[in-house]
Amino acid sequence: MAKYVFQSPGKYLQGQGVLETLGEETGKLAGKPLVISDEMVWSITEERITESFKNADIDFKYEEFKGEASEAEIDRLTEVAKNNDADVVIGVGGGKTLDTSKAIADDLGSPVIIVPTTASTDAPSSSLSVIYSDEGAFTGYRFYDKNPNLIVIDSGVVVNAPAKLFASGMSDAMATLVEARAAQKSNGDNMVGGQPTLASMAIAEKCEETIFKHGHAAYKAASNGIVTPQVDAVIEANTLLSGLGFENGGLAAAHAIHNGFTSLSGDIHHLSHGEKVAYGTLVQLVLENSPDETLERYIGFYKKIGMPTTLKEMHLEDTSFEDLVKVGKLATDPEDTFANLSDRITPEEIANAILAVSEISEASK
Questions:
Q1: What is the pLDDT of residues 322-337, one digit of tens each?
Q2: Which residue in 172, 214, 232, 336 is the catalytic one?
Q3: Which cofactor does it need (predicted)?
Q4: Do the Cβ atoms of 92 and 49 come closer than 8 Å?
């Protein structure tokens, strides 16, 4: 068994207008695509995608994604693909749509093309899917033998999505180096069955460097629908660098705490993946006994881009300590990644760290 393992997608295309190449690029892989997307995203992209396939002389089948990356939805869409003899799956949209597309393609044994319409997560490049119940609770991961065959991300589409999603992608990406360092320090496994390579750590470092360097300017430009070099740099950091970094560097506490938050009910479920990961990253930094200046740097950045750093902003101000312990219990499930930080931290210590983050953030105002 190899000690160090690194995986990556087959091809990555990014830039303003690249959606127009989707038909041509699809034709290099297969000829009978199933395209899945939710209703809102399809209303934005249908015309350009249809024209792209028309220009490539390719017929495609479209099926609406119902919104949850659950086993039931994966099974339903897999049957649609089989009934239409689809030989490639194309996911267009956000993280759950893309994770579902990867699962369908794996069930079919077909190529998969990923078309993110936001830069909100690092899901596009990875060889795994995060699976939820039909009600939205985290149930586990599905791992695949390969990464997506092709990723096509149009910067012009991304900047027309809500700016909050762009910020959420930065927050998700900000966890990459924090978690990869923890995995490396603990000699933990990455997400592809080995230990972090030098390349994965370098990518994770570049990811964080890019976001701290260009994130605020990129956020302001994207908020106004403008594509700039800073925007393209952050799209790459959110999507490619973070994806390669987390998968090959490893996850630790930040994402496990995000998963722990799914044990709660209430308005927290209206928050994006990146918003919850941002708070989980701060909790991990507290549990690592990070210096004050490190915590202040992360908190200050999150505040600039409107990410939650207090219990009130997480809609948890009235949550009992016992419920926060439940978050800690789910986060430390042996099947999750918390042990890449430590296998000695208790759910009660996690609950205390969740409380501490809010107090530190309030004091930093």
A1: 999 999 999 999 999 9
A2: 172
A3: Zn(2+)
A4: yes
C-alpha 156: how far from chain center: 20
Say what the pTM is: 0.93
186 annotated as belonging to a binding site for a ligand: no
Instruction: List the domain boundaries for the chain.
Output: 12-158, 163-364
Give just the sign of the alpha carbon dihedral 90, 95, 100, 103.
positive
Pairwise CA distance, residues 63 & 78, whole Å? 11
- What b-and-e string marks burial along 117-141, b requiring 16 or more CB atoms within 10 Å of the CB? bbbbbbbbbbbbbbbbeeeeebeeb
Residue 120 labelled as part of a binding site: yes
Q: Give the model confidence (pLDDT) of 290-301 as tens digits.
A: 999 999 999 999
Strand, coil or helix: what is 301? helix
Identify the active-site residue in 106, 214, 232, 255: 255
User: Is 172 one of the annotated active-site residues of the chain?
Assistant: yes
To the question of whether residue 126 is assigned a binding role by annotation, the answer is yes
Place of tokens 């902003």: 313
Among residues 106, 154, 214, 273, which one is catalytic? Answer: 273
Rg (CA), the chain: 20
Any catalytic annotation for residue 255?
Answer: yes
Fold of 12-158: Rossmann fold (3.40.50)
- Please indicate if the annotation marks 198 as binding a ligand: no
96 labeled part of a ligand binding site: yes
